[in-house]
Amino acid sequence: MLRIIFISVIVLAAGLLFLQGRLLERSNDKPVFLTTDKIADAHHTKIDVSVQSVYKPDSIQVETLKKDYSNLWAHLNHLFATNEVEKGKEYYTEPWFRQLCSHYKNVIELTGIVRKDVSHQLVIQNWSSDGLVCTAIDSSVVFKYTYPNKSSSSTKAKIAVVMLYQGDHWRIDAIKIIEELPAN
Amino acid sequence: MTKLVALILLLLLLNACTKPVQKPIWQNPQSIISFPDVQLQFKSTTNNWSASLVSFIQPIQLSIEYTSDGFILINDNKNGVIEGPAQICLTSGDQYFYYRVNLINKEGSAVTHKDYRSPKTVNPDSSLHQQRIVHAINQYRNLVYPEKKLQYFFEEDMLLSPKAGNYRAISSESLSGYYVQPGSCVNVPVKALYNTAKEMLEVTAGPLKDKFDNQVADGTAVAFMYSHNQATYRMEAALLKGYATVFIPAKRGSTFSLKAKVNETTSATIQLSP
Fold this sequence. Notes:
The complex is a heterodimer. Chain A is an alpha+beta fold.
């Protein structure tokens, strides 16, 4: 009898431990430094940066900004085509990400439009002396839109953008599409 | 076998005869759509549509209500959008139709003024200059013009008040805080009292203030150097609320020569005779 009670207690304890283990939330997200950003890696664009700010960034800071700005547009184009908000979260500030999520129900694969940013003319307007805030006007962005019937069109846009350096990246915080006109 | 081939050919022929989907006619066309009140009427004989509003940033799913002669696109999401050029996308099977529009938010949303300061900590010993970058954002992350300025971004160099303290660029935002530190002291007043019962000299340096009358930071080390019987001694104490105190054992009738030092500032030498 005692043996049965003893075994029952052990089985009960083992079962409890097993269930507790299953209840633990496990995140499948790898740390950023272990992940490969395939969307950003597959993206290529031409970015010319000019500096009009009072405080000037050094060459290394400009290169970092160019790389992150290119990656940001890779994700903005992907978002534009799919509404897959999570993919580019490394390049979004928290309020920006919240705004995107407020329009997220599911991934959309039916818009059929693919956007490619061909080139940028990024003019830095303000650069904080601590290197954490950058405001810029992308004065002549050339976009190419491709439609499901294989037709395409090009536009030239002027965009104001605010970026904040958070974590390991420049992240977009706010935007204004000043104009977008058909390109010749 | 012949029958089977004929059947396949007939099916292929029927498939080829399927009418292509006609582009729906937008019955209340508008070049500007005010979000979130989207209600767009289309005339169409087909009733297997899916619709989205492709904003400059992301596509937004729209609901469809079919009517006797077409359908109405409705937006269920009451949150605002990132404004700009957009396209209404209608899909039926493998047919896609697009309608260009401009997307704006219907009502003026809450505008937040951003005021970034750099550096966040300023010391009057070096410089009271601070960089200020200003812009305004509405709650849906659209940049808006700050009041009375026809540019999205504004920057200025500010000369801060030398009064030490914690400040906020925007009073309601703790993250906009910055700090004016007290500077170095300019004068070291020293006084001493003799405690007869304990046979101790209680030596106090203070109040220590910088050139702008700010109390020197707590924790600043104050060195007391004194000579007695041809020997030299050194004691240290940390500043608290402008004062630092040390206790020196002293017999009545002995004599001491003492001075206090804070970084490069030294007090006058005082003679103590308990």
